[in-house]
Amino acid sequence: MSHLAFARKYRPQSFGEIVGQDHITTTLKNAILQNRVAHAYLFTGSRGVGKTTTARIFAKALNCEKGPTVDFCNKCHSCTEITQGSNLDVLEIDGASNRGIDEIRALRDNVKFSPTGGKFRIYIIDEVHMLTSEAFNALLKTLEEPPPHVKFIFATTQPHKVPATILSRCQRFDFRRIPARAIFDRLKAIAKEERFDVSDDVLSLVAKYADGSMRDGQVILDQAASFTDGKVTAGDITRMLGVADEDTLFGLSDSIREHDAVKAVRIIARLVDEGKDIVQALLALIEHFRNMAVIKIGAEAVTAVDAGPEKIKRYEAEAKNFTIEEMLYIVYTLSGAIDFARKSNIPRIPFETAMIKLARLGNITQLGDIVKRLDNLANRSQLTDHRVDEPVSNNNTNDASRFTLHERRDSALPPPGPQAYQRSANLDEVLSAWSRILASVGQKKMSSALYLQEGRPVGMEGMVLSIGFPKSSKFHKEALESPEQRKMLEESVKEVLGLEVRSVIVYDDTVRPDDKKVKIPVENRGTEYMPDPEGAPKEEDDPIIKSAKDIFSGEVIKPSWRRPSR
Prior knowledge:
This protein is α/β, with parallel strands linked by helices and 566 residues long. Helices cover 50% and strands 9% of the residues.
C-alpha cells in the first residue's frame, strides 16, 4: 500500500475538525441552520489554513443525503465521493490552469444543468485570482444571478488581485493564520497516532517553522519521520530544514556578550560550511533576541514566546546578560543587515560585519540617563550667571563647551506657531526701540543687558529676530545663546513692542567692535554696576570679566564697555 501524506491522511472531514477558524465555521453552520446559504463565497487567507478543506466540508453539508445539515453523515454516497474528489456535482477547478475565457464560457454553459444526485451543483475554483480579466468579465452575469441549484466557492491567497466587481458579488471570509499552539496540539495527536518518539520541544519547533500553516507543519513532521528512524530530535529538524539550531543562536548571543568577534565569525563560517541559509539564520537570531527581550519585560509576556519550558528557562538566563536597550539595538542592527544580505551575492559578509560591530559594542546608556546628564550640564553652564560674586575654579575645564550644549538642545525646539503672533514688525522698528529693550533686559538682569550692548539687531525674517555680534565678542555671543538668556530678551521685546518673537544669536561681519554702542540708561543699570564717581571701574574689579579670565585663562586687552554719558 502506498504511503498517504499526513496532510491528506489527517485532513479535517467535518466542521468540528477544522482548527483555528471558528469565526468561519460558526457562520457557515448558522447559514445552513437558518436557510441563509448565499450563492457565492470567497475564501481568502495564506497557504495551508484550510480554505479548500472548508469548501469541501461545506459542500458535504449542502449535498449530504440528510442535508442541507451541519451534522452530515460522511458515509453516504455523496459525502464519500466528495471526500474522494469524484463527485459530479462538486467540481473543483484550478484557476491557474483553467484561467481563460473559453473555460469560463464552458462553465457558464454547464451551470444550467441540474445536479445529478445532490441538491446543488457546487463550483470550487482554487486560486481564482489567476483568472484573466476576460474570464472574470464572462463570469460576472452568471455569478450575480446563477440558477437556484448552483453555488460558487472561490479560494485565493491574493484577494487584492480579484476584481472589485467579483468581490461585491460574494460573501468574503478571511481565514486566519493558525496559532502555533493549535498546530502543536494537532501534530502531537498525529505523532501519537503514528507512534512517533518525539518530544514536546521538537513539536514546538515544528509548529514554529510551520509559520501559521497546518499543512506546512504536517509536511515537516512527515518529512522528519522519513529523515529519521522514528525518533525525531530538534537537531534532526534544524538539519533537515537547513536552519540555525538553538546552540548556534545562543553561541552568537554569547559572542556579543563576551565581546568576542572571532567567535562570531567562526560560528558564521560553520553555518556557511553546513549549507545553512544565511538570511534565515539572521531572521532566527533576530527572533532569538526578540524572545529574550519579551521575556525580560515581564513574566506576563512569556506567553508570547513560542518555546518549551526548558528553552524558556534558557532564554531567561541569557536575558540577564543584556539590557532591554542593548537587545533592541541588536535587533535593529541585524534587521539592517538582512536587506543587504538578500541583495548580496555573498550574504555572509553583511552578517559578519553586523556581528563584529555588535561584538565590539560598548555599554548602551538609556535615553533617560542621557537626558539627565544633559540637564545636569545645562544647570552647571548657568553657574557664571547665577554666582557672579563667587570665584570660578580654574579646574572647570568643561565650561567652555557648555554654550554649544545649549545651542544643540534648543535647536530641536520648533519655532513658535504663527497663531501666537499679534502683529508683524520690521527691523527698523526694533532698532528704534533697542535702547528701551536693553533697559527692560537690564531691569531683569544687568549682566545680560551689558552682553547685548556689544551687539545689535541685524535681521528680522518673519518673527525671527537676529542679534549680530562681531567675532571678537565670542564670549558675549555664547553667553546669550542659552535658552534662558534668549527668553529674557524675547520677553523684553514683547514688553516694549508687544511682539512675540524668537531670537537667534549670530555672528555678523557688519557689526564691528568699535561701533558706537547703544547706551543703557543709568537709572536702569542697577547698583551692582554703577560707575564709580571718580571714574570707570577697573577690569580686575568687574566680576564678569574676572569670570571670563578664569574660565578661558585669558587677558583683558580692551574693556568691552564704556562709562555712559551723564
